[in-house]
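Today's session is about reading a structure prediction critically. Students often jump straight to the picture, but the first step is always the sequence itself: look for stretches that repeat, for charged clusters, for runs of hydrophobic residues. Only then move on to the predicted structure, which in these notes is written as discrete structure tokens rather than atom positions. Here is the chain we will use throughout the hour.
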Amino acid sequence: MGPIILAVFVIVLGAVIRVAGPASGKPGAAGSAKLAGYGLMLAGLVLMVSNGVTVIGVGEVGVKHFLGSIDSVPLDQGVHVINPLASIEKMSIREQAYPQSGGVELIEAQTSEQLNVSLEISILFRLDGANSPDLFQRLGSEEQIKRSIVLNAVRNGVRDAVATKSINQIFSPDRREVADDMLREIQAKAGDRIEVLDVFVRDVQAPPTVRQAQNIISAGLTPAYLTFHYIEKLSTLPAGSVVYVPTEGGIPLMRSLGGGN
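Below is the predicted structure for this chain, in token form.
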């Protein structure tokens, strides 16, 4: 809208100069005023015509809107002739990462055993160009769409997926199955408004109670304690049990227990 207002102003200014110049009565003013007036009017006309042409870049769609009315048909990449008074909202339909710039979203979730875990999640997604007019109508610009749909879908989808998994499944070395379940849940939350391409589970942190127990076990399992526990268990073995005793040379020693031997 701004360029159009400027174009109209330039045309009107040119017309005023064209009319006012000859009326001044000064020698030679009429010719100069006409030339300046016609030049400004021509410049305003060119500016107005250029505003009626828009270029949608590769990997983009355009949403045309004018005076609160939104065209339901998005503009594909290429050159388009439009109403000079209309505005164009451009959106990317390329693959995008969320969060951007290689970041991660830290999400707290509960497993099926009601244990809290912290997950670092990132996703790949893209906007559905065919739905861009509807998305713009309801949510606004591309950045507003990301904040409204992507963030909420990621958080809720991850939590719903984790709620069906045990703590052992979450910490399994093969996280692909967990990530696939998250993808399905995130897509279900987002609907057809965006397409979720992939989900990456960057890191998983155990609940504080589990981490504390791991620290206690790591600190308590000293060689002396393990030796004592080994000797203690030998006394409980039934008669005739064969015990393999490791040695520094790597050759195990064997002994048959029981019968007072």
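Discussion point for the tutorial: Residues 61 and 76 are 5 Å apart (CA to CA).
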